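User: As part of a screening pipeline, I want to sanity-check one entry by hand. Below is the sequence and the SMILES for NDP. Please return the complex as structure tokens so I can compare it with the automated output.
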Amino acid sequence: MIRVGVNGYGTIGKRVADAVAAQPDMELVGVTKTKPNYEAEAAIRRGYDLYAAIAERAGEFETAGVGIAGTLPDLLESVDVVVDCAPSGIGAQNRSVYAAHDTPAIFQGGEGADVADASFNARTNFEASRGADTLRVVSCNTTGLARLLAPLEAAYGIEKARVTLVRRGGDPSETGRGPINDVVPDPTTVPSHHGPDVNTVLSGVDVDTAALKAPVTTMHTHSVNVTLREPPTTEAVRDLLADESRIFTIPEAAGIDGAGKLKEYAMDRGRPRGDLWENCVWEESINVSGRDLYLFENVHQEADVVPENVDAIRALTTDLSAAESVERTNEALGVGLESLLLSGGDARDPITADD
Ligand SMILES: NC(=O)C1=CN([C@@H]2O[C@H](COP(=O)(O)OP(=O)(O)OC[C@H]3O[C@@H](n4cnc5c(N)ncnc54)[C@H](OP(=O)(O)O)[C@@H]3O)[C@@H](O)[C@H]2O)C=CC1
Ligand SMILES: O=C(OP(=O)(O)O)[C@H](O)COP(=O)(O)O
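Assistant: Here is the complex for your manual check:
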């Protein structure tokens, strides 16, 4: 069993902890909190051992009647790998703590690429990550882009990808985030960091990204245009993407017009926390005109990096192949959303070069 600790039990950390606990070859040794709040209670109710992330605050847990199993150094001594899910920037500060305990570590996309030996995405560079002591799972948007561009690059070659990202303003629990009444370029400069970040896990693909933030909390939306080297049919691209286990092609007949219904569908399907681990691509948006491919996809920022973290743990600690790890992760979590509502050929109205 791979013994895993999660340092930082927030939006990403609580999901990674649940995903680790669900794996047949992993044991969740414990999670950390800096304070004994509602999330600490939830962790304990799930049966997870709780550790104080900051040793000086251990007494606060006792005062609040929340039992802890120890402090972060105790956790690091008991695990084979730690997954750092602390807020952006704190991960980089934690790096020396992990090194002092000789504990391999996985960081998140809020950290710079230099925080770890390599950046990671299971679809693009699992094998290349072997031998590293530390990995960084790229951010939610970057993960979504890597999953989408990798099969296109392999099948047709990518001459140039251009993506506009409409980023959610904050997560549902982040009451202080915004904007609340505007759509703002963020960053205002082009390209945004996402394109270069894609190249940390998928080198050689020419991709420019421009990003905005919108007053929504549910998901990010990507408007994608890729100029391919070989011109496929629209149908071929739809089939290619539908074959990817971490891409869900939304059939037109489902009547899902945005993130609200996507999240509702996830909850109807019994997904924990309404999580969508897969990129969600609108099937009827996939259109090829000459060598230009267009599509819209949504990415659930709280969820898509979660299976990637599980695979990163195996890349660091096992000899399993990428395919074996991805299959194991998918099976344990139930990744691979499919709809029974298949669109018929007549329902499609592709743009063609003759239009
Ligand atoms: N949310 C998102 O959409 C995504 C986030 N990421 C990345 O994942 C990382 C985590 O983000 P996210 O989960 O959203 O952040 P959150 O703020 O939701 O969670 C981080 C948690 O870490 C705890 N924490 C604070 N200080 C420390 C510390 N010194 N040591 C350990 N834990 C600490 C806080 O809980 P408490 O103080 O109560 O213990 C906090 O809830 C970031 O790098 C982010 O960029 C990546 C993809 C998507
Ligand atoms: O990693 C994320 O976004 P990103 O891919 O746009 O960098 C997460 O959605 C966190 O973004 P935030 O920095 O807006 O909280």
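Points to compare against the pipeline: The first helix runs from residue 11 to 21. The domain at 2-137+306-333 is CATH 3.40.50.720 (Rossmann fold).
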